[in-house]
């Protein structure tokens, strides 16, 4: 089975076509230049002694270097471990130690974080610093680029590991989904199929490169399209880039689509070249989807998938041809490519349910991960012997085989496409000396889909909600920090231990919604 980066070689047969544009830095690379850079960086990794199967953590903001790191590591048969640059020390330390990382790629600011935890990561041999020509003990990224070009991809099998994608665990312990070269080949094929990607397309991507949503950008590259990178979403800039580069495919998610609906008349003119918008990562309600379609006339490809399936590598999507039977813009479509979907009893996965019956969504197909890194018990729970993966999401199929999401089996919160697991946040809040008990749950938010909210029983020593927010910000990625803190006298639990999150949502979400659009602030309420 070929290495999943060999599409770069095939595309380089038309060397002058533009492959990558990074407007914020003025960078632009042809297909030949992209292959040359990937080869040089790959040889640089080999020069540091990185061997096939070794894990290398990427701790960067979305950037050219992030993308090159993925492709170069895959090309030499190593394993990429993407993380988010907003990770705090404890979050990064967990990923480095759990993956057994041999190296970490970061920037100058990230060097300070890595430096403080390096001694706690056995086997970490190299720190590679982007922009770090004076980074001391680190290897400057620029040294990799002086390596000779012409690196042939290492031959790989379908099940050879190429990535560990961490997804937060419901017990507060992140799980590393083991993704393979074969998984990625299947994902690139499926996403190209969903979008009808060709070398005439220009894709405007906004998904952070530490997120599995990077797959849409890599799939665009594989199809010979141009990938336009936007590091951070800004509505005005998004509209400007779509107009300037005549984007044909744009990344989106419910908050983006909602924001576009708030723009003044005439915005549609900037998006006239767009033939499809991607959405996923959270519920897209008819109240947003339908008016967007009526105003902009841009079909939304509403996709459903997970980190464990490389989005729609094994998943579903609704495409324009489905709109006539989409039940007023509520479905996430039908299986893509070689994917299969079924609904099973949430308490008995051996029992398949009929059309219209809600149960747990199970997926099967070529992009389903091998399992969770070094977690055999957790793997056995959801990766079944016959190939089905239990997603933890609740939904049903209609008589036409269209999938509808209705709930989540677990307590995961999805905010702007990012998954927040309450237990992980609770574990941090309970470390605060002024917190006696805490519980985290999701509340609906018109702009972000959901936001995390915390109820706290204070320890009675003058602690304020502001103190708790600040404490959480120091220890958690920004999207995990509760948007509101509610002080209460009692947290509802069954027999004093089993938390009733549903009760908390019923008791407090209305008050939060009535308080206006969510923001990174606090709310003080008592029962």
Automatic annotation (TrEMBL):
Keywords: Ligase. The keyword Ligase applies. InterPro entries: AMP-bd_C, AMP-bd_C_sf, AMP-binding_CS, AMP-dep_synth/lig_dom, ANL_N_sf. Residues 424-493 form the AMP-binding enzyme C-terminal domain. One of its GO terms (molecular function) is medium-chain fatty acid-CoA ligase activity. GO terms for biological process: fatty acid metabolic process. Residues 10-373 form the AMP-dependent synthetase/ligase domain. It comes from the Archaea. Belongs to the ATP-dependent AMP-binding enzyme family. This is Class I adenylate-forming enzyme family protein. It comes from Methanoculleus receptaculi.
